[in-house]
């Protein structure tokens, strides 16, 4: 099944090989097909999956996402003014539909982020968070 992650992998490889125009065209096709902004400059780990092909997903170009993550529809991973740094997400993180991860934060490994949660603070490993702003509702 072709989804936004498939296109991202191709564009990212071409970007690493310093191919000039093709990654930008692939990024544009991701936007047109899936209404998503998944830049080829970001780092998305192997085994990561997008729900429903990645519809409505917005990722900042400097974000780092670990391996085996699950990203739902309409998820936003991005910066927060006036900070330069952007989120760094660990391995095996589940980001439910509509969740927002914003600012210079770190999300640990094996974390579950609830639907429509707004994460603006660091999240340790092995937690479940939910709410606006997101709070730890289960630890361990």
TrEMBL record:
CDD domains assigned? LbH_SAT
Key word Acyltransferase present: yes
The record's section on SUPFAM superfamilies has: Trimeric LpxA-like enzymes
- Keywords (A to Z) from UniProt: Acyltransferase, Transferase
Pfam families of this UniProt entry?
A: Hexapep
**Family affiliation:** Belongs to the transferase hexapeptide repeat family.
Protein's recorded name: Serine acetyltransferase
């Amino acid at each position: 099944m072709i989804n936004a992650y498939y296109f991202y992998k191709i564009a990212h490889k071409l970007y690493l090989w310093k191919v000039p125009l093709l990654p930008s065209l692939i990024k544009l096709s991701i936007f047109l097909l899936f209404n998503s902004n998944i830049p080829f400059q970001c780092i998305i780990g192997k085994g990561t999956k997008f729900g429903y092909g990645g519809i409505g997903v917005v990722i900042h170009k400097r974000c780092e996402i670990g391996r085996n993550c699950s990203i739902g529809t309409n998820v936003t991973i991005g910066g927060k003014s006036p900070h330069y740094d952007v989120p760094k997400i660990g391995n095996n993180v589940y980001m439910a539909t509509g969740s927002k991860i914003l600012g210079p934060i770190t999300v640990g490994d094996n974390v579950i982020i609830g639907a429509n949660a707004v994460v603006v603070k660091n999240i340790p490993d092995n937690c479940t968070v939910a709410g606006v702003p997101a709070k730890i509702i289960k630890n361990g």
